[in-house]
Automatic annotation (TrEMBL), chains A, B:
Species assigned in the record: Streptosporangium minutum
Coiled coil: none
GO molecular function: DNA-binding transcription factor activity
Domain of life: Bacteria
Protein name: MarR family transcriptional regulator
Signal peptide start and end residues: none
Any single GO BP term: response to stress
Domain HTH marR-type positions: 18-154
Length: 163, 163
């Protein structure tokens, strides 16, 4: 089966094999995300997005980031992040702080309780990545995977893989 | 930098290279999803999840699926799908139908308007996959990608790739 695409003046066919690779990629990502999230929820009552927020804050100077920068890093919309930080603040894991030198600036800051919860949850998260991703692929496949991802979306500065 | 994981009795290290591959994979999936969704929203006022629902229905016998089966195929929670189908029904793209022979059964059915909207949006969707995924990788890389995805998550029956 071949799907024919008419796009402006050009016609290009997408084979069913190509479409299948794409659908497999979508499914793989959703499934691995679900598996990781289930473990984090069951063992630590943390959603995956919450885990990502705590991780990004813990890796930042003074454990704080501007809300806009944090939204970029965890790949959430600004409104989605606002709701998530509301919840994390209610749970005592994150605080908001105004920036003294910048009226526009609003920071999210990791609390000590947030740091403890993150440290507790990290072994679960890393065990999940190992079991469902890293251990399934061999070293050569991981290198192939990294090379393809680098072609698809060049890594941000500071996160390039060694060649 | 090496992150050390303590998981039960075993200790396993995850290298920063491994963690980076994982983070790249997460980002690649989110970014490509965003790019595809933006095109679909701008050109056809369709969210990506809506496009997926219309596609699954159009590929099913009599253009209909039980809500539970549809939720599995588009990888949404049952409650998330219910809200999405509410919206698609308001827009006239999908109808709900009770199943005569099965009191538990509730179907989602693609309407003629839904089929037309799907047909209009499909070139945009396929053009996006081609530009941001298929054309970036060469044929060998696509085969590597498929092989890795098959290892990570074996494809459902009927969607296996030819060897």
């Amino acid at each position: 089966m071949t799907v024919t695409v008419t796009a402006g003046e050009s016609r290009e066919a997408i084979s069913s094999e190509e479409l299948t690779v794409w659908r497999m990629l979508q499914r793989a990502q959703v499934r691995i995300t679900r598996v990781l999230e289930t473990d984090l929820l069951v063992e630590h009552d943390l959603a995956l997005a919450s885990y990502d927020v705590l991780t990004q804050l813990s890796e930042s100077p003074d454990r704080r980031l501007r809300m806009n920068d944090l939204a970029d890093r965890v790949l959430l919309s600004r409104s989605g992040l606002t709701r998530l930080v509301d919840r994390l603040q209610r749970d005592g894991l994150v605080e908001r702080e105004a920036c003294a030198s910048d009226a526009r600036g609003l920071f999210a800051v990791l609390t000590d309780d947030g740091a403890v919860r993150l440290a507790e949850a990290t072994p679960t998260y890393l065990r999940g990545i190992r079991a469902h991703f890293l251990d399934v692929l061999d070293a050569g496949e991981l290198r192939q995977c990294a090379a393809m991802l680098n072609k698809l979306f060049p890594a941000p500065a500071g996160e390039e893989l060694p060649a």
